[in-house]
Amino acid sequence: xxxxxxxxxxxxxxxxxxxxxxxxxxxxxxxxxxxxxxxxxxxxxxxxxxxxxxxxxxxxxxxxxxxxxxxxxxxxxxxxxxxxxxxxxxxxxxxxxxxxxxxxxxxxxxxxxxxxxxxxxxxxxxxxxxxxxxxxxxxxxxxxxxxxxxxxxxxxxxxxxxxxxxxxxxxxxxxxxxxxxxxxxxxxxxxx
Length: 192
Description:
There is one protein chain. By secondary structure, this protein is of the alpha/beta class. It has one domain: Rossmann fold (3-Layer(aba) Sandwich), CATH 3.40.50. Helices cover 41% and strands 10% of the residues. The protein is built from seven helices and five strands. It has helices at 8-15, 21-32, 57-66, 94-107, 129-149, 168-176, 186-190; strands at 3-6, 37-41, 73-75, 154-157, 178-181. A five-stranded parallel sheet has the order 3-2-1-4-5, sandwiched between helices. α1 packs across α2 and α4 (94-107) crosses α5 (129-149). The longest helix is centred in the C-terminal third of the chain and has 21 residues, at 129-149. The radius of gyration is 16 Å and the shape is globular. The termini are close together.
């Protein structure tokens, strides 16, 4: 059975009824019928929300329920203080961090993997834009890390950075399997 991973952009696409929403709903329906296995990444709860940060994971699960996505599995990331939710992340070992570092170096070769100094200690409303940009990059890395660590087949995202010709071969070599555009997700159903 084909095992697909939807990144945070899939949740946003359904929430905002973007063009990819139809294809994503088709995947979710095929999952409910037992034709494919679709999962989400738990790091999506850590992405910056329009209304601010999510304070507990139950709020994220309520969001998934509203969107009728709550029956999908959640793939856990590596635990990071002030980023992930402890019950929904793994304590890491050296191999986990090594894989995360390799993914970061492919996706964001000229960007620091650590937050700007002193920013995590600031209240959320006082953190500079650079902190939020770092956090978004870290969530992207951990989303793909979760997919690879879980040994899944296809990572679906609307973020073109994952599919750049200069990056895609290296990500596949790290174990990503296939990385496809969310908008083309309907083609995966036809082949399952």
